[in-house]
């Protein structure tokens, strides 16, 4: 029975024990021992050897003696215990550490997600990675924003389009707020993906070519906003107010699914006209 708040030290201890006990020593090529194993799984000393830490440290962790392992120790334990990605993230959370990125950033959309974007029609929708690269989109959002298919892949980036694409520069009525919110997301992504050279290059390019971006980037805002309103100027229908919602797939937490809807009757009507196929 679970009552009260979580005792993090106890949970960390129990989690490490259960992960250790489920492992088969034969899978690690460990030398046979004369003494029979009294408990299933690996011994503490074997985990310590695999993780490159002391046996005493493993004992104290499993006895919930108030230790807070460093990110390096957590990473070593995760490898030694062969944790799955979700288990690894859980261990980092229990230790109060932030996991390092282990997978390369997504540069393509998984087919089910690409199909979902298409199926959201007639709502304009697109799928982006952590640096705002546009990985999948439907025809409706192209009619609203820009013809992504005609752009080089390196320019299919929502931040670049907002700042440097001629058609998009005056698209947002409150441009500074939109840029500020985009920068807040990019800064958080930059901290989480310090190894991402493409993201670093994007930030450097935007800083060099857009004074507003450079000024707002220097403010170091990190407050994220995944829901709200944007007022836009469309060349065919004039000003309309869009409600946006940003969703994150559970299995792809670095991706963002952006969906637009009209915020009022007039905007819904205008958005429907914008998104209507030319021959409809």
From TrEMBL:
SMART domains: HTH_XRE. It holds the Pfam family MLTR_LBD. Residues 34-88 form the HTH cro/C1-type domain. InterPro entries: Cro/C1-type_HTH, Lambda_DNA-bd_dom_sf, MLTR_LBD. PANTHER family: BLL4672 PROTEIN, BLL4672 PROTEIN-RELATED. This is Helix-turn-helix transcriptional regulator. It comes from Amycolatopsis nalaikhensis. The lineage of its organism: Bacteria, Bacillati, Actinomycetota, Actinomycetes, Pseudonocardiales.
């Amino acid at each position: 029975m679970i009552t009260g708040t979580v005792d993090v030290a106890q949970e960390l201890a129990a989690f490490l024990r259960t992960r250790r006990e489920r492992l088969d020593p034969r899978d690690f090529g460990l030398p046979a021992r004369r003494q029979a194993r009294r408990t299933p799984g690996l011994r503490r000393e074997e985990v310590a050897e695999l993780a490159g830490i002391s046996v005493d440290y493993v004992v104290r962790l499993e006895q919930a003696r108030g230790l807070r392992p460093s990110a390096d120790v957590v990473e070593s334990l995760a490898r030694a215990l062969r944790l799955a990605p979700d288990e690894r993230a859980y261990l980092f959370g229990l230790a109060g550490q932030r996991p390092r990125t282990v997978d390369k950033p997504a540069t393509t959309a998984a087919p089910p997600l690409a199909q979902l974007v298409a199926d959201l029609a007639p709502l304009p929708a697109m799928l982006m990675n952590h640096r705002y690269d546009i990985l999948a989109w439907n025809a409706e959002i192209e009619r609203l924003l820009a013809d992504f298919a005609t752009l080089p892949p390196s320019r299919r980036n929502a931040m670049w389009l907002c700042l440097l694409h001629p058609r998009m520069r005056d698209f947002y009525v409150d441009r500074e707020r939109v840029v500020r919110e985009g920068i807040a997301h990019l800064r958080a992504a930059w901290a989480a993906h310090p190894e991402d050279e493409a993201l670093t290059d994007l930030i450097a390019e935007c800083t060099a070519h857009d004074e507003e971006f450079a000024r707002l980037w220097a403010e170091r805002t990190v407050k994220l906003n995944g829901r709200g309103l944007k007022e836009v100027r469309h060349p065919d229908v004039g000003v309309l107010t869009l409600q946006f919602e940003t969703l994150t797939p559970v299995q792809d937490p670095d991706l963002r699914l952006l969906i637009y809807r009209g915020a009022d009757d007039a905007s819904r009507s205008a958005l429907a006209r914008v998104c209507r196929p030319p021959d409809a």
